[in-house]
């Protein structure tokens, strides 16, 4: 097989065979096929697309380029959740104990990464003593006994994706549905769960800016998952404004605790229930989505979900008393209010820009080397659709520096007040095939 012939075939709209796709990904992983040929192929895929079969084959070729996680020692149906990324997205911290409280095993492998705030692991490390440096054996044992554990990313998972993603980044080929879908799904499949619930975000703070694009991506990923034998569903959710009120690490831990107590922000609770009911259903713990949702509400009401969170924290060395005493979480030195300049209704809180303001405070990493400040971030006091009077606080800045003029300006530039506005629809669509 010659790579040049495969590039030509795709350039002319042909369909690559399973063997051809395996040849390309194996050759690229081993540095036998050069970047310039793979970038030409990526551009051909960008314009000519891939069939469903090609997409599934590409995903599995990427999975097979490295190690995979074997969760077979864990009893029950393992359901993973993945979000395509947003601002102030605290759902994992809520969903993991919520679902585990229904005896569904949550075996979560998580990363740190870049962004407006840290990843799930960074957030959890705001709890004194909590750590994810546990052995594989301990991880499996915790999930079997208590149904929940989080471990840091280890091993050589999907090396082909790392190379391909970096190459796409510099060849204007990131924005291709078959390439995005196979990239995301390969990582989820390599992580070993039996079923996958996807939260595909749409809006200013999302990778996919329009609901149509988000739906196309969701469908592509759901089909890949189902075609390779992992039950997969997707929820398409709004990310035009940040999720919940908190954007920051310790602030989001507190928000997750509030939500597990049944006192969280309405939108965060609604999304957690929308995702959670799919997870419960895919785990065969309910006969219908309605029954699944009722079970989730019941473990919030009874306090079982909160108890599960405490157990989880204690299991991994953390101090569970933060649940009853959130003031023990890292606190920023300064709290600065940002008052509204006029009366009206909040019409826009541009998610990605507000997320960047939180990053400027130190809540997230701009580069891999950046340090993160777990205490800082933003608390929204208003959401889109809320009436506001001049002088009322729109946002409380939690900072460890006294001068926050840059952040205040960024906030004013990205919160719009109008005469009329309505809260956006949170859950746009559910994709099951
Ligand atoms: N996120 C991924 O992991 N891969 C992509 O290709 C795009 C977004
Ligand atoms: Ca939040």
UniProtKB/TrEMBL annotation:
It catalyses: uridine + phosphate = alpha-D-ribose 1-phosphate + uracil; thymidine + phosphate = 2-deoxy-alpha-D-ribose 1-phosphate + thymine; 2'-deoxyuridine + phosphate = 2-deoxy-alpha-D-ribose 1-phosphate + uracil. Keywords: Glycosyltransferase, Transferase. One of its GO terms (molecular function) is pyrimidine-nucleoside phosphorylase activity. InterPro entries: Glycosyl_Trfase_fam3, Glycosyl_Trfase_fam3_N_dom, Glycosyl_Trfase_fam3_N_dom_sf, Nuc_phospho_transferase, PYNP-like_C_sf, PYNP_C, Pyrmidine_PPas_bac/euk, Pyrmidine_PPase_CS. Transmembrane segments: none annotated. NCBIfam families: PRK05820.1, PRK06078.1, Y_phosphoryl. This is Pyrimidine-nucleoside phosphorylase. It comes from Paenibacillus gyeongsangnamensis.
